[in-house]
Structures are given as structure tokens and as C-alpha cells.
Write a structure and sequence with these properties.
By secondary structure, the chain is α/β, with parallel strands linked by helices. The chain contains 14 helices and 23 strands. The C terminus is likely disordered.
């Protein structure tokens, strides 16, 4: 198994489930997982078979997933909210997998994770038992996690972030995980969830942090009760704006620790620790622990025991991403003299304006620093002369009225002329991917089809 539940005291709490706050002990969970493993075998599944497990953040998902692994099966966690066509596509991809050969499964594989593909076809990443063990051990060591710690499953368990960082790491060290009643993060119950779990930490994407920060207490003292046991907050899977980190630290009274990871690295590559200074936390994602990182032509490359060997069923794509044991992340970054890694952008996000390369993340930071801006997203706009121009969409802080003229003026003194957004739209919300990242492709597509109501002068009609 990826997690040995039997090593923990059988009466210790493993899971807290739903609105009733039902507790499931390690002994009960171990018995349920063993029963699920027997059920898989009784149904005719054999070691090495691939099974898809679809469920929300619920006890049934945990039992089915760990039971399948215990039975020697290869598990593919899937999003229950996928449309039927998306589910069918993933099942067909899983059905095409074979053991052995280039791009095939091996006896060491225990999970297959789906990640977004640029062609619209999801990529399949194999996770081995050794890689999962290396990643969970690194996370536990980085944050000093133990059986005394408890958390809330704010991230979906069918994604690497929630599965590795929240669930499997907690069960590895003997900690406790609360599974929300909604089967997912809920802003309205999050503070109650933290309090019910006596949570010492939680991990989420910046979008969830922003939502948690903007949600007011339903009852006086909700935040104080929710954060009474909190030691730190972890942020991963997307860039964390300094303003969001500062707001969380002020509201929750604990350090916010940025981390860096991806599915191809079994989620975790590096993370700031409680020992890091506020300056290190503000400008970096910490020092890679079990992984080794280097910068090649501005791109972050990583290697280590948790790095996948390639994409299943796609040797050609693998050869361009996995090179001699190194993973080309596609992220731009720098490493300082102390070994701290700073991620500055995505290579594929770069906007090419007449040969000038523009980092949308840099422009977003400037926009996010303008008074009254809650969120900002930058994306390319097609241009017949320059190839691409800079487009932007911003969400205003509640109660604040923004003008695009003010936003553009705020950029002009801090950005090169070619970096200043050509068009700015003020919108109610930014589109997100299933992982909670800003969906730049959707913004670019919408703007190209005039769905953002952009004007050539940057004056948006909303």
C-alpha cells in the first residue's frame, strides 16, 4: 500500500466526515480498506488492472481508492463533475493502456493522474509507490507534520494537491483529515470545518485563500475559533499574490508558506518552511527538498525520486518534457544564492509583442497592486501588426468602482510601454480551470469573440 494504516493507534481519529462530524478511527478505516480490497478481488479484478474511482471528498472515495491500491490495482482518480463526454474520454484513454514498452504501465505503478493537455486531450501521469512515498515524506518533513496535526480537505482529492498534500501525507503521519459536508470546499462552512477539526494547517490554491479571506464571519468569533490551533497555511498549484498572503497572515495570525509542485512531480517540489523569513516567503517557494532544481535557459528543470518517468501512451510528448531524468517544468524561474527557487512565469503564457517577450504574471502583479483591485488576469490579444498585444481582466474589490483609465495609468509608470495592457475589462469574476487556476485561454477566447466588451481605448463596458 501507499499508506500503512495499521501502524497507527487503532482508536486514533483518521477522518472526520460531513456535517454530523462522524469520526472514523484508523482501526475502522483499516478494516474498511481491507474489505474494499477483498471486494475488488471478489469482483474479478486482478493485480495490475486499471480502475477509475470517481467521488467527491467523501469517506467512500478514500476507502475505494486505498482499497484498490491494497488489492494491487492501478487507480485513476476522476472528477465527479466531469461531463459525460469528458468521463468517456478518460475511460477510453485508460482502456488503451498496456503494460510494458515505451509509454506503458509498469509493476511499480499504483496510480494514474490526469493533467491538462494543450491539445484538449488529457495527459496521463503514472505515479509509483516510491514516488508517492517520497513526496508525502518530503511534505511531512518540510512542515513538521505528525499525528498531532489535523487539517481540512479544501482541495479536491482527485487532484494531486488534495490527494498527496492533504490526504495521503496526513494518513502517513497518523494525522486527522476533515472531509467537508459538501464534498468540497465551501466558503460558508470553512471556518466551522477548521474549528471542528481543530485544524493545525490546511493547503489550498490561492483562489480558495482569497475566497476564505473575503468571507465574513457568520457569527462573532468564527475566525478566532477556526484558527485557534492553526500553525500555518500552505499555498500551492498557482502563484500566490503578496497581497493575498499578507491578508491571510493578518486575518488568521499564522505564516502563509508558498509551495511549488505539479502532477509530473507527484505534486511537491519545494516549499517554504516555518523557519524561513517573511522576505523568503514573499519572494520564493522555498528550497527544493527531495528534488534538485536547476535553471536551463530560464526554465526550471527538476529531478528526484518523485519525478514521473513520462506520460503514458505518448512517448513523443514525453521525450520533449522528460530529459535524462529531468523534468522540464515549463515554468520560468531563478534560484538565489541560498538555493531558494522563485517562479516568475510560464513559458507558454509568454506574450510575444513584435518580438518583445512579456510575462503576464509580471503585469498581473502590477495590476493587483493598484488600489481597489481584488484579482487580475493577463492574456494575449491577436494583433495584425505585432502578432500579440496585452489584454487584461480585473475584478474590483467589493464596494470599489474602478475605471480602466486609472488602471492603465497605474501600469504606465511601472511597466515598459509594450507591457501596458492595450485593453482592460472590469468583470465580476475570472474564469477558472478545474484546478482553480485562472483560465487564460478562456479569457483570450472570450475577448477574441468580443464577450468581454473591450474597447480599443481600454474602456470596458460591463
Amino acid at each position: 500500500m501507499t499508506v500503512d494504516l495499521s501502524v497507527h493507534p487503532p482508536r486514533s481519529t483518521a477522518l472526520i466526515v460531513g456535517a454530523a462530524r462522524e469520526t472514523i478511527t484508523y482501526g475502522q478505516l483499516d478494516a474498511a480498506v481491507s474489505g474494499a480490497a477483498r471486494a475488488y478481488t471478489d469482483r474479478g479484478f486482478r493485480r495490475g488492472d486499471v480502475v477509475a474511482v470517481t467521488a467527491a471528498n467523501a469517506a467512500e472515495f478514500v476507502v475505494d481508492l486505498l482499497g484498490a491500491v491494497h488489492a494491487g490495482l492501478i487507480v485513476a482518480p476522476m472528477d465527479p463533475a466531469l461531463p459525460q463526454a469528458g468521463t468517456r474520454q478518460r475511460l477510453d484513454l485508460l482502456g488503451s493502456l498496456r503494460h510494458g514498452g515505451p509509454g506503458g504501465l509498469t509493476d511499480d505503478d499504483v496510480m494514474v493522474m490526469f493533467t491538462s493537455g494543450t491539445t484538449g486531450i488529457p495527459k496521463m501521469v503514472p505515479w509509483t509507490r516510491q514516488a508517492i512515498t517520497a513526496s508525502t515524506a518530503t511534505i511531512a518533513r518540510t512542515y513538521g507534520l505528525s499525528a498531532a496535526d489535523s487539517t481540512v480537505a479544501a482541495m479536491p482529492l482527485f487532484h494531486g494537491h488534495g490527494l498527496i498534500a492533504t490526504l495521503l501525507t496526513s494518513l502517513t503521519v497518523g494525522g486527522t483529515v476533515l472531509l467537508p459536508a459538501a464534498g468540497r470546499f465551501s466558503a460558508h462552512t470553512f471556518r466551522d470545518d477548521l474549528a471542528a477539526a481543530a485544524a493545525t494547517w490546511y493547503s489550498a490554491v490561492p483562489t480558495i485563500h482569497r475566497i476564505a479571506l473575503s468571507t465574513r464571519d457568520i457569527r462573532p468569533g468564527d475566525t478566532a475559533r477556526a484558527t485557534a490551533a492553526l500553525r500555518f497555511v500552505r499555498s500551492c498549484s498557482a502563484p500566490l499574490a503578496p497581497e493575498t498572503a499578507a491578508g491571510l497572515e493578518s486575518a488568521f495570525g499564522v505564516p502563509v508558506l508558498p509551495a511549488y509542485g505539479m502532477t509530473e512531480a507527484t505534486h511537491h517540489v519545494s516549499g517554504c518552511t516555518l523557519a524561513d523569513s517573511a522576505d523568503v516567503r514573499r519572494r520564493s517557494v522555498g528550497t527544493p527538498a527531495a528534488a534538485t532544481a536547476r535553471i536551463v535557459d530560464g526554465e526550471v528543470w527538476v529531478t528526484g525520486p518523485a519525478i514521473a518517468r513520462g506520460y503514458l501512451g505518448d512517448p513523443a510528448l514525453s521525450s520533449g518534457t522528460f530529459v535524462d531524468g529531468w523534468l522540464r517544468t515549463g515554468d520560468l524561474g531563478v534560484i538565489d544564492a541560498s538555493g531558494n527557487l522563485s517562479v516568475t512565469g510560464r513559458i507558454k503564457n509568454i506574450i510575444n509583442c513584435g518580438g518583445e517577450k512579456i510575462s503576464p504574471e509580471r503585469v498581473e502583479q502590477i495590476l493587483a497592486g493598484c488600489p481597489g483591485v481584488a484579482q487580475a488576469a493577463v492574456f494575449p490579444l491577436p494583433d495584425p501588426v505585432y502578432g500579440e498585444r496585452v489584454g487584461a481582466a480585473v475584478v474590483a474589490t467589493p464596494g470599489i468602482r474602478l475605471t480602466t483609465g486609472e488602471l492603465i495609468a497605474g501600469c504606465r509608470g511601472r511597466l515598459a510601454k509594450y507591457e501596458v495592457p492595450e485593453h482592460v475589462s472590469i468583470v465580476d469574476a475570472l474564469p477558472l480551470t478545474a484546478k482553480g487556476d485562472i483560465d487564460r485561454a478562456a479569457l483570450a477566447h472570450s475577448s477574441s469573440n468580443s464577450q468581454l466588451s473591450l474597447s480599443p481605448t481600454g474602456a470596458a463596458v460591463t
